[in-house]
Specification:
Chain lengths: 330, 203, 330, 203
C-alpha cells in the first residue's frame, strides 16, 4: 500500500484538520470528528455523515444552503451514537434538526439512536434514509438499497429547503421526495484500500471490472469484462432508467461522480457519453455535474446518478449554496 | 470481564476475516477497538461488580466505536447490566433474565429474527438451552455448560443461512456458506462469560 | 490498461466535447482542439495549452479573469504551430495576445513559431515560458527547468492583470515576475499510462516512489522508499524553499496539486502537513489551494508549488475569476 | 518520397522505443502520424517533383503533428524544399545546398550544437562527408554513399553523448548509453533519401 498518509490511525483527524484549515467557513468541534459551520443559522439544521473514506463527502458539503454539520466515523465505519448526538446538540435550533443518513445498518442505528436521545432532550430531530443504489433489488429479504453518491443531491435539495425557511416536517418531506426520485449505479475498475487493512478489499483481473459495487468496496452485482466508456455508461443508465421508471420527456439532474482515482479526462468522456445517451432516450438533462463528490477512497471508476426533477426541485438544486466541495450544476 | 476484553482483542483478526467473506472485513477492528478501550477502563478501576463491568462495556461500545456493533452490543451489555442492577453475585434466574434483556435489546434495535444470520442466531439457542437445563433441574454450572455448547452450535448453524439483514444481505444467496461475523463474536462473548461464572461457582 | 475511454485516438476530442458541454461559458473552435470563451473581451488575451493528459488544465482555466483560449495537442504532445496560430487568431484583440507556455522543446517551438507568424499578420503576440520545476538544476547543460503545476498560478496572475486592463508588455512583465517567484516539486507513487501506449511509462516497486518526476511520466531525480506524508512534504518543501531562496518572514501562496489519481483524503493530509511545515519555517501562507489542477493522467502522487507574494501579487490571485476548474484560494 | 513515408511509418515502434529510454517514448507515434498523413496526401497527387514532395511533407509536419519534431522536421523539409524551388532534377551542388538549408533550419529553431545528442549529430557528419566526397572529385552517387555511411556513424556516436537539449537533457549523465531518437529517425530519412537518388541516378 502506497498512500500519502502518516499513520492509518490518524488519517481521519488529520484530513479533517486539513479540511477546516482550507475552509475558513468550517470548524472542528473540539476533540471530535464533527465538522460544522463557523456561524450557524436560524431554521432547520441539517446533519449528515457516516464512515470516513468518502471524501470530499460529507464535511465538504457543509456551508450556506447545504449542511450545517457532518459527523465522521473511522474509515468505512459509522460514527458512534455519542458523536452524532454531539453534532446534533452543536447545531440544534428550535426549528429542529434533520439527519440525512445513508442506508447502512451502522449509520441507521447510530443516527437513529442519537435522534431518539436528542428528542428526549427536547430537540426536534428527524431522520431520512437515502437508498439510491439501484444496482440492488430492494426487498424484505435484504437490508434494502444502499445509500451512495446521489446523497449529495439530497443534501442540496434539503439544504435549499432549510435555507428557504421551511419547517422540519416540510424539509423532511422534500428530502424524502428527492430520495424517491433518485437512482445511482456505479462501476469499479479497481478495488479500494482501507489504510488500516493495508491491502485492497478484493482483486480484479487485468480486464475485469465490477458493476454495481458499494462505496465501501463491498462486492458488486456482476463482474464483467472491461468495455468502452460508451458501453459502460449505457449499462449503468439502462438500469437506473428502468428502476426509476424514467421515460422520454422526463427531466433529470445528472451527477457523474469519481469514485476516487479516476482522472478528469475519463470523467469528461463518461459525462459526454451519458449526456448523449440520455438525449437519445428523450430524457432531458436539466443540470449536470462531473467531479469528485462521494468516493470509495482510492477506487478507480465512477457512478452515475439521476434525480427526476420538476421546476420546484430544480430551483432547490439551483439555489445559492457554498461549500468546499460544491459546484453549481450546468 | 478481563477475559472477555482479552479474547475479543486477541481474536480480532479472525473476526475481521470472517466479516471479509461477506461484509466489509472490519468486524474485528471495530470490536477489538471497543473491547480494548473498555478493558483499559476496567483495569483502571480499583474494583467493580459484574453489572458495573457490563455497564462500562456497554457505554464504551455506544460512545466510542460506532459501526453497527457499537449500538447493538452497546445496548446488549447496557440492558443486561440494568437487569442485574445492584447485584453483587447472581443466580441462574438472574442470568436467564440477563440474557433475555440482552436479546430484547438487540432485536428491539436491529429487528433481526432468528435465521437472519446475525448474533441473534447465537443468543436465541444459547438462552433456550440455558433455560431448558434450568427447567430440567440442572445446576447453574450445568446450565452454563449447556449454554456454551448451544452457542457454538448456533454459530455453526449460521454457516448455512442466507443473510437477511446487515451488509451481507445484499449478497443474497452468495452470503451462504460462511459463518456470520457477529455470531462468531457473540459465541466468544457468551462462552467466555459462562466460563468465568463456572470458575467462580467452583471456588 | 483499464480506462473509461472509447478509443485511445478519440480521447482528446471526446473529453474536450465533454468539457464544453459541462461549461456553458466555453466553446470549441470548429474542427479543432482549441477551446475558448463564448464571449471574448477587450484587452490583452491569454492563450495557454500543451499536450493533453493534464486535465483539468489547460482548458479548465478558461473564463473571466483567467485564460481566453487553450490549445490541446495529442496526449503529452505539444499542439502544432497551426493549431496555436488558430487559437491566437480566434482571440486576438488590438491589445494583443500573451502565450503562456511551459518549458518543453515542443511547446516552445510551436507556440514560439505561432507567435512569430501572428506578429507577421499584425497581431501583437508575446510568449512567457514557465519553468517552475525546482527538482531540476537549470543550467547551460540542459534545456532548463520544466513547467509544471505552478503554471496554474501564473494563469491566474496574468489573467487578473489582463482583466485589469494592463497592456501587453505590462501583463507579460507580471507573468514573468510571477514565474520567477514560483517553484514546484512533485512526488509520484505510481506511473501514468498514456492511452495510446496502453501500459505504464515506467514501473515502481511495491514500496518505491519517485521524487521530482515530470508531468509526462518522465523520470524523476531520485527513486526512494515510501515515507510518511509528513516526511515527503518536508522533502518537497526543503527543495523548493532552498531553490527559491525563501526565508522566515516571506509570504507565499501554496498549491497542493493532485497528479491524477490521488484521493481527496490524502491531499488534505498533505495540505495539513505542508501548512504546518511552512509555519514552522516562519513562512507565511497567505493563500492555499488543494485539489486537482494540472495532472499527469492517472498518476498517483502530488506536487507542491510555492509562489512568493507581496500585496500586489496577492491581489491578482484574489481578483475575481471564474473557470470550470478554478476555485478561490483560502 | 513514398519510401521515406513508408519507412518511418514502418519503424515507428523502434523510434518510440528508443525515445522511451531517455524521453517520453512518443517519437515514433509523432513521426509515424506525420509521415502517414503526408504519404496519403502524396499518393493522392497525380504527380509531384522532389521539392513539391518535400514541401508537402514539411507543411504536414508543421500543421498536423505538433510535438518538438513537428516544427523541427517541418522547417527542415520546408527549407530544403525552398532551396530546390522549381527544380525537376538535382545535382550534387543542389543536394549540398539542400542539406545546408535543412541544417540551418533545425539549428535556427532548436539551437542544438553538434554533440548535444540530437538529429544535428546525424545531419552534420552526413553533409560533411557528402561535401568532402564531392570536393575529392567523387561522383554524386559515391558522395551519397559516403553520406549514408556517415549518417549511420553519426547515429551510433549519439550513444555515448549526454543530451544537452530537449527532454532527455534533464537526465544529465543518465542520458548517456542509448541512441538518440531524433538522430535515429534522421538517419533513416537521410539514408532513404540518398538511396532513392542513387536508384534514380542508376537508371
Ligand atoms: N440488523 C441487525 N441486527 C443484528 N445484528 C446485525 C444486524 N445487522 C448486522 N448485524 C451483525 O453485524 C455483523 C457485522 O458487524 P460489523 O462488521 O462490525 O459492522 P458493519 O457491517 O457495519 O461493518 C454481522 O455479522 C451481523 O451479525
Ligand atoms: N532543441 C532541439 N534541437 C534539435 N533536436 C531536438 C531538440 N530537442 C529535442 N530534439 C530531438 O527531438 C527528439 C525527441 O522527439 P520527440 O520524442 O518526437 O519529441 P518530444 O521530446 O517532445 O516527445 C530527440 O531525440 C532529439 O533528437
Ligand atoms: Mg463496517
Ligand atoms: Mg463489517
Ligand atoms: Mg512528447
Ligand atoms: Mg518524445
Amino acid at each position: 500500500m502506497k498512500k500519502l498518509i502518516n499513520n492509518p490511525v490518524s488519517v481521519v483527524p488529520e484530513m479533517l484538520e486539513g479540511l477546516v484549515r482550507l475552509s475558513p467557513g468550517l470548524r472542528l468541534l473540539s476533540d471530535s470528528h464533527v465538522v460544522l459551520r463557523q456561524t450557524q443559522t436560524e431554521g432547520v439544521a441539517l446533519v449528515s455523515g457516516g464512515g470516513a473514506g468518502h471524501e470530499p463527502a460529507h464535511a465538504g458539503f457543509i456551508g450556506p444552503g447545504l449542511l450545517h454539520a457532518a459527523v465522521t466515523g473511522d474509515v468505512f465505519t459509522s460514527p458512534s451514537t455519542d458523536a452524532v448526538l454531539e453534532a446534533i446538540r452543536a447545531v440544534a435550533t428550535p426549528a429542529g434538526v434533520l439527519l440525512i443518513v445513508k442506508n447502512y445498518t451502522g449509520d441507521r442505528l447510530n443516527f437513529g439512536l442519537a435522534a431518539e436521545m436528542a428528542r428526549a432532550e427536547g430537540i426536534p430531530a428527524e431522520v431520512v434514509i437515502v437508498d439510491d443504489d439501484t444496482a440492488l433489488e430492494a426487498g424484505p429479504e435484504n437490508a434494502g438499497r444502499r445509500g451512495i453518491a446521489g446523497t449529495v443531491l439530497v443534501h442540496k435539495v434539503a439544504g435549499a429547503a432549510a435555507a428557504a425557511g421551511l419547517d422540519l416536517a416540510a424539509v423532511k418531506a422534500e428530502a424524502e421526495a428527492a430520495i424517491a426520485a433518485l437512482g445511482t449505479m456505479a462501476v469499479a475498475l479497481s478495488p479500494c484500500t482501507v489504510p488500516a487493512a493495508g491491502k485492497p478489499g478484493f482483486t480484479l483481473g487485468e480486464t475485469e471490472i465490477e458493476l454495481g459495487l458499494g462505496i465501501h468496496g463491498e462486492a458488486g452485482i456482476r463482474r464483467v469484462s472491461m468495455a468502452s466508456a460508451d458501453r459502460l455508461t449505457e449499462i449503468l443508465l439502462d438500469r437506473v432508467v428502468a428502476q426509476k421508471g424514467l421515460r422520454a420527456g422526463d427531466k433529470v439532474a445528472l451527477l457523474v461522480n469519481n469514485l476516487g482515482a479516476t482522472p478528469v479526462m475519463e470523467l469528461l468522456i463518461v459525462a459526454r457519453s451519458a449526456l448523449a445517451s440520455l438525449e437519445a432516450r428523450g430524457i432531458s438533462v436539466e443540470r449536470v455535474w462531473a467531479g469528485t463528490f462521494l468516493t470509495a477512497i482510492d477506487m478507480a471508476g465512477c457512478s452515475l446518478s439521476l434525480m427526476k426533477v420538476d421546476a420546484a426541485r430544480l430551483a432547490r438544486l439551483d439555489a445559492p449554496a457554498s461549500a468546499p466541495a460544491w459546484t453549481p450544476g450546468q | 470481564m478481563f477475559d472477555l476484553a482479552d479474547i475479543i482483542v486477541r481474536e480480532q483478526g479472525k473476526l475481521s476475516e470472517i466479516d471479509g467473506q461477506t461484509g466489509d472485513g472490519d468486524h474485528g477492528v471495530n470490536m477489538g477497538k471497543g473491547f480494548r478501550i473498555a478493558g483499559e477502563r476496567l483495569r483502571a478501576l480499583p474494583s467493580f461488580t459484574l453489572p458495573e463491568g457490563l455497564a462500562l462495556l456497554g457505554d464504551t461500545l455506544l460512545s466510542d466505536i460506532g459501526g453497527s456493533m457499537g449500538p447493538l452490543y452497546g445496548t446488549f451489555f447496557t440492558d443486561m447490566s440494568e437487569v442485574l442492577d445492584g447485584k453483587d453475585s447472581l443466580d441462574a434466574a438472574d442470568f436467564s433474565a440477563m440474557l433475555a434483556a440482552g436479546l430484547a435489546a438487540v432485536q428491539g434495535l436491529g429487528e433481526a429474527k432468528p435465521g437472519d444470520k446475525t448474533l441473534v442466531d447465537v443468543i436465541v439457542p444459547a438462552s433456550q438451552a440455558f433455560n431448558a437445563a434450568v427447567a430440567e433441574g440442572k445446576s447453574f454450572t450445568e446450565a452454563l455448560e449447556a449454554l456454551q455448547t448451544a452457542a457454538a452450535a448456533g454459530l455453526e448453524a449460521t454457516r448455512d443461512m442466507v443473510a437477511k439483514v446487515g451488509r451481507a444481505s445484499r449478497l443474497g444467496e452468495r452470503s451462504r456458506g460462511t459463518l456470520d461475523a457477529g455470531a462468531a463474536s457473540c459465541d466468544m462473548i457468551l462462552e467466555t462469560l459462562a466460563a468465568g461464572l463456572i470458575k467462580q461457582l467452583a471456588t
